[in-house]
Amino acid sequence: MFLIEEELKKLPPNPGVYIMHGERDEIIYVGKAVSLKNRVRQYFQSSRNKGAKIEQMVTHISRFEYIITDSELEALVLESNLIKEHRPKYNTMLKDDKSYPFIRVTVQEDFPRVLFSRRMKKDKSRYFGPYTSAGAVKDVIELVRKLYQVRSCSRVLPRDTGKERPCLYYHMKQCTAPCQGGVTPEEYKKNIQKVLRFLNGDFQETIDGLTEKMQQASEEMRFEDAMEYRDLIRSIQMIGERQKITTYGQEDRDIIAAAMDESEDLRDQDAVVQVFFVRDGKLIGRDHFYLRVARGDTKEQVLSSFLKQFYAGTPFIPGEIILEKDIEDKEIIEEWLSGRRKQKVHILVPKKGTKEKMVELARENARMVLDKDRERIRREEGRTIGAVKEVEEWLGLSGLSRMEAFDISNISGFESVGSMVVYEKGRPKRSDYRKFRIKSVEGPNDYASMEEVLTRRFTHESSGEFDSFARMPDLLLMDGGKGQVNIALSVLDKLNLSIPVCGMVKDDHHRTRGLYFNNEEIPIDTGSEGFRLITRIQDEAHRFAIEYHRSLRSKDQVHSVLDDIKGIGDTRRKALMRRFRAIENIRDATLEELEHTESMNAASARQVYDFFHKKERENSPQND
Q: Which of 101, 111, 205, 497 could make an S-S bridge to 178, C-beta 3.0–4.6 Å?
């Protein structure tokens, strides 16, 4: 038994990270401390003014643990990693995971290429960016290839010279064909130097050269060539306009400000952080980020949390970060960012001048975004978190976060397949979806197939903490009623697992009408967000299973179940599918309906009927 008072006495004075656990042993808060002994004890001292968020959080703490580090810097890095992994309820959290593209020039190659990249790797390439628009990056790369005729292929040169024919870009005059020996490395690299100057913002040399070619083509009455040069000049000028806003100096800076929703009727606040990206003294773009903020958090705390989460995930760190407010742990964050950048990083809070005006502009933009999107954010929260809370109320559960839904598909195929879809906090987590090809069941037996799928899911040996099987669900959703629920409960019982199981019951029109839970059908409000969430999950599980099944059929890996019925050849199989459309409908048809199908007789109808119903009798689960 964990006794908080006793454990507080054992806390060491070292720096480190502390982890608070809730009633269900879930992680609800992660923090860092210079002294674990002093920091953690503060949470449980009644005399301190802890604020609304901390007061509420402390009432849910069932136990805590801690990890000692050698320094406060190590604690900050570990804190960031744990927050990103576990996304605790009471930590300020980024709602967006965004990455920004770069232009990569492989100058280390004999014949360099200009490429699109999502990451800045530790290689010898030159990187330009990050840019806020992937579309703009692709436009620039396409323009550079047209202007300077640099290659885009992945051939290893000069090793592969002459091994293959030149590609289409050579015939379009967008590549000098170094793969054919059409240009020396020295000549080619002269064009690469022009590319580098262009990407650094030196457009005038290129514009002057194109203008001269355009005029010469016009004088020689080569008007199509002249129009092409004109269009290239316009494209360059458009790119130049994007980078025309110059601030001060030639530095790389990020300018960051926040706006917070302070409505009193909300338990949690919304916040928007606006970032202006300044590269080489030019404002190249901006972006905004939504954060989940617990009531009582200050703007300083929001900015501090944002810095740690944002710069833990972005590959480029500027030399200056300009904030609207000072933050408590500025020095340690500067040290951490300087270590990641390999150069000194300064965090500044300007009070006057151009920098302060830029901060004010960022703050106004953040407020504008928050005001504009407040209703959209509320609707999204209602569709996700609010919908999950409704499901909790219907089932009498609490703490639902991860829901897994399963479905079986054998449409027109002998081999059945299973799907597992995952929803966390009301949103699909597609990286955790899994597909199952049924191995131990012959014929279209949904119950036996589901038993196999669930057994494989819960006995699978996880390959690591990021494996989708590593986390247990808080709720299992079965695409069916009592029978499917009992199959799931039987599997869990054999494996000594205790997980709530709920069936999604459909009406005669195949629409969800209620939930089957604890041996009773629970009616649900069909106009509620909870109902819409259940329907989305059910549809997604069904879609994912059918999609997998179709992919197998497209590879000729699945054949029709009707092919395995004696006396049913190609003509009768087609006739059955024309009338009933799906295997499920053939399985549910009466003997009389089968007999009255085109090309069928009494004997063949009996063969079909017995095939399906014999399987059902053999594998039907006990429903008591």
A: 111
Under CATH, what is the fold of the domain 402-554? Nucleotidyltransferase; domain 5 (3.30.420)
- CA 25/CA 21 separation, integer angstroms: 5
pLDDT in tens, 346-391: 999 998 888 888 898 888 888 888 877 666 667 777 788 889 999 9
Task: Determine what percent of the chain is predicted with pLDDT higher than 90.
Answer: 24
Copy the structure tokens of residue 98: 């965004």
Q: Which residues of 487-525 are buried (b: 16+ CB within 10 A; e: fewer)?
A: bbbebbeeeeeeebbbbbbeeeeeebebbbbeeeeeebe
Q: Which fold has domain 561-619?
A: DNA polymerase; domain 1 (1.10.150)
Closest C-alpha to 416, from 434, 443, 395: 443
The rounded mean pLDDT for the chain is 82
**Which of 317, 198, 199 has the alpha carbon at shortest distance from 252?**
317
- Coil, strand or helix: which one is 195? helix
Greater model confidence, 46 or 304? 304
Q: pLDDT by residue (tens digit) across 296-328?
A: 788 998 999 999 888 886 767 889 999 999 998
CATH of 4-91, one of 3.30.70.1060, 3.30.950.30, 1.10.1740.10, 3.40.1440.10: 3.40.1440.10
Q: Report DSSP state, residue 503.
A: E
**Pairing outcome for strands 402-409 and 475-478:** parallel
Q: Which CATH class is domain 253-371?
A: alpha beta
Contact predicate 276/62, CB 8 Å: no
Q: Which residue has the tokens 């609490």?
A: 398
- Closest residue by Cα to residue 254 from 335, 347, 183: 347
Pair of tokens at residue 477: 């959703």
| pTM > 0.70: yes or no | no
CA distance linking residue 479 with residue 547, whole number of Å: 16
Does residue 26 sit in helix, strand or coil? coil
How many CB atoms lie under 10 A from the CB of residue 80? 21
Q: What is the pLDDT of residue 623?
A: 45
